[in-house]
Predict the structure.
Amino acid sequence: MTQPQPIQNHLQKRLGLPFALAISVGGVIGTGIMRAPGVIVNEVPVFWIAMTLWAVAGLFILLAANVTAELGAALPKAGGHYVAVHAAFGDTMGLLSGWTNWLANVAGTTAVAIACADFLGTINPWVAAHVPWAASAILIAVTAANWAGVREGKWMQIIGTAIKLGLLGAVVGIAFLIDPVAAPSSSAAAYVPALPGGIAGFIAIVTALQIILGAYDGWFGPIYFSEEDKNPGRNIPRALFTSVFVIIGVYLLVNLSLFKALDIAGLRASELPMALVIEQVFGRTGNIIVALIATIMALVTLNSIVMPTPRILFAMARDGLFLQSATRVNRGGTPTVALAISALIAFPLIWSGGFVFVFKLTGALSIFASSLYFAAFFALRRSQPDLPRPFRAVGYPVLPALALVISVLLLIAFIAADPISGVYMIGLIAICIPVGILLHSRRQTRV
């Protein structure tokens, strides 16, 4: 029997609701929630402020999911945010959106690979001393696994998500059941600064919110695969809303459990606060157990970012806004050239400045891409009122407008609070200008 020939320039409808849920939940719940609670408390060492920020970020994500569900079901094509922006505003804004969204994913890939290496470093001293090398090796391994095809990546994601939810649920249960853990004896570790007032307090709160949104980033994963979904009009909205409610609930439960088990000083003292909780039950091996759990969760999250990222380049290339070679799809349904390019660009970021820097950069890039996406929502409602919409956003136009306004305000606040990350973000986005000019000139020459 002859083997089927590779499919060129076409993705394959092999996915459904279970994968859409797994790519959203599994892509979000992982590295961020393992590390972010301690980082947030370092910025805002007040219980009710920290919990409020987690809840407010969750409500914003819910508003965003309301818009995304309509656009994802109405425009079932690969490419994520790029698809709607390109349909609404044309090539220039489409290129800007696609490039920014792709960079956000690449930055997210980098942050999770670094975090995974950090977790392994808790177990292996050599890894701890060579985090960039270890992160690069991890990224290569996950990329190679996805090269085989969509079916392999799908089952990795579904099984991995089920495992990570089970592990995280067990840790949360332990945190709620054990007696509160005593604060570290070191006076330096036990010292808890007050939240500063004025501009310093504003910067602390905005920085914390930026990191929290980075931890939520990835909930929109199903829209990247809508072209490969067997029933996108039904599955995309269901997956988005179900996933967002699950993610918000898990994140609030994790933070509540950690605040119940640890005091502020304990949270601030550990990069992996859950390790302090598990140590109460398993002793010194608790740190290793949590590191293994965190590594598994990070690998699943990394897979959920590596899978959709090349589909952005695939969509742009199909529309003539990137190299045509990026439209090549192998027999397994993977855009291999786009996958290789995405991995290659991630490596320099691995060496750029560590987890927190890249995580904050991811949050800023994602908010910029979301702002364009929400604007496209209103543009398409005006320009294409007859576009079939299997799901229509609830509370139109008030709730979608609120999502747009909040995203713009968050972007302004992020740049004001962290100008350095803002400069990096603007610089990375600006790279698309010469790329766009070059591609436009090539298209004009062909015409």
Observations:
- The chain has 20 helices and no strands.
- Residues 92 and 437 are 10 Å apart (CA to CA).
- Residues 91-123 form the longest helix (33 residues).
